[in-house]
Amino acid sequence: MRPIQLPEPPSPTRGLRGTAEIFESGVHTFVRRAVVIGNGFPASENQSIGLVRALGLSDKHLLYRVTRPKEGINEWLQWLPVSLHKKIDYIIRMISCYSQLMLKSRQKKLMSLPSEKGVSAGLSAVLEADVRQIVNLARETYEKEGPLLVVASGRDTISTASSIKRLASDNVFVVQILHPRLHLNRFDMVIAPKHDYYPLTPEGQKRVPRVLRSWITPRDPPDSHVILTTGALHQIDFTSLRSAAAMWHDEFAHVPRPLLIVNIGGPTRNCRYGVDLAKQLATSLLSVLVSCGSVRISFSERTPEKVSSIIVKEFANNPKVQICDGQESNLHMGHLAWGDAFVVTADSVSKISEACSTGKPVYVVGAERCRWKFTEFHQSLRDQGVVRPFTGSEDISESWSYPPLNDTADAAKRVHEALAARGWKLKI
């Protein structure tokens, strides 16, 4: 097997040095800090943090979240705009509290009313994304700190990010990750995977009823401020892999090679599967074990018990196979750094994108069970020679490579260019 090679990454400040700051266009043109607006989902927030990291601002950013009420009837209201969802939840809880007050009035018990922000209404204690607060931060610190970079990701963050842009357009540069579907001009930059535009293709148009097209498809083809990526943004690059290789050296240095990493996700609306795929995967893994030195299998939080139990039952006592319990938060990084090949279930765009950033062999299982734009994503990767289907006939000791996916670095470069066009520059 080829040795692990992690070349030095290009410096994000290369080309920016050599000119004294006094000769730059002024202190106010330097972007020194960022605000990340997330939705509480790791896969989504990972994209924003990955972009900020690629821009060199990983130590100079604040994390805010747009959170939704949870539990009870709220699980049925996730499709509503987040602002309307919160108002309905507030009204329901107000009615509930007053009802309990009436019932317990004889006992003279005082109950605290829920907060419309949601903190007292059972939400996690997180830094809630408040438009006015972030706008004031951008305005009041502009003279001293310069403009503010705002990076948001996910459907629930769209309203917050666009409002910040509208109220503080002279003080912020707003990047929205994942396609907001409409009003793209409300953001300075939109970063979306190419397969988000699948509904505009002839094949996509055949699958969308005409009456629904205006609701679920992009309105216009991408213009100059829309950046299209192959996969998801993330935090994986040569620097992080090198660091992980050193951190996990004692754990993996003596593991028999080649080391096959298997990442199992869970079925989604557009990638449906169950025990059938688990049995298929187990059979294929048994077939390739002879060419593996060792195998590490990891499950995600979305993996159904009926899927994981089949895998555990088949491999729990196999000396070549270790099933990871997921207790180590950085174990995934160790796997990416030390793994010689990867098998990933087709539902996880993020995990596939991360594995494809290593340049090592990536096999996908279950792509034929996906539909809609995910078929476009998997076909794109196969056309580029980045992934291959996992059939069980593979020789894992056979190494093959490809130009690693560099979506995050490419997106960061475009942000640099867009800031420069505005007369701003990142201060690393």
Total DSSP E strands: 14
Rounded radius of gyration (Å): 24 Å
Shape: globular
Order of helices and strands: EEHEHHHEHEEHHEHHEHEHEHEHEHEHE
Helix share, percent: 25-40%
The biggest sheet amounts to: 6 strands, parallel
Quote the beta fraction: 5-15%
Mean pLDDT metric: 83
Report the span from N to C terminus. 38 Å
The side-by-side strand order for the widest beta sheet comes to: 3-2-4-5-6-7
- The total of helices stands at 15
The assigned structural class equals alpha/beta
Low-confidence stretches: 1-27, 105-126
InterPro entries: Elm1-like
Organism: Crotalaria pallida (Smooth rattlebox)
Pfam families: Mito_fiss_Elm1
Protein name: Mitochondrial fission protein ELM1
Describe the structure.
Helices cover 35% and strands 14% of the residues. The protein has 428 residues and is of the alpha/beta class. The protein is globular, with a radius of gyration of 24 Å. The chain has a six-stranded parallel beta sheet with strand order 3-2-4-5-6-7, with helices on both faces. It is built from 15 helices and 14 strands.
